[in-house]
């Protein structure tokens, strides 16, 4: 009877160890996770807020367009007009009164809001 109890406890411990190893291996599978959608412009890194508007608010003017796109699972490059999620030619708009934000016009005519990322 004691042998059955010890065998039961050992079996349970072994099961927990196997589960723990499986979970650890699962976490290590994703070697190249995607980074947040970003744009580098005006020597600043901006991140997508998830907010979209159909027209620009007052005071926003065209600054330029995306010139370079890198893969989203690579570290962001600090090169002007570079993005890891947009398309070459997407227009970037700024407002001198709100220099911590930019808007990017995408193909469907909508504007995505990006804000400065504080490292």
Structure keywords:
single chain; 119 residues; alpha+beta; 2 domains; 8-stranded mixed β-sheet; elongated
State the total count of DSSP E strands: 8
Distance between the termini: 61 Å
Count helical runs: 1
Radius of gyration: 24 Å
Q: Helix/strand/pairing class, anyone?
A: alpha+beta
Account of the 3D structure:
The longest helix has 26 residues, at 2-27. The protein starts with a helix and ends with a strand. The chain contains one helix and eight strands. It is elongated, with a radius of gyration of 24 Å. It has two domains: 1-31; 38-116, no CATH class. It is of the alpha+beta class. A hairpin with a 2-residue loop joins strand 1 and strand 2 (44-53). 14% of the residues are buried. It has an eight-stranded mixed beta sheet, with no helix packed on it. Helix content is 22%, strand content 32%.
Per-chain topology:
Layout: H1 2-27, E1 38-41, E2 44-53, E3 61-65, E4 68-69, E5 82-83, E6 91-94, E7 101-105, E8 111-116
Parallel strand pairs: 4-5
Antiparallel strand pairs: 1-2, 1-5, 2-8, 3-6, 6-7, 7-8
Question: How would you concisely characterize the structure shown here?
Answer:
By secondary structure, the chain is an alpha+beta fold. It is built from 1 helix and 8 strands, in the order H-E-E-E-E-E-E-E-E.
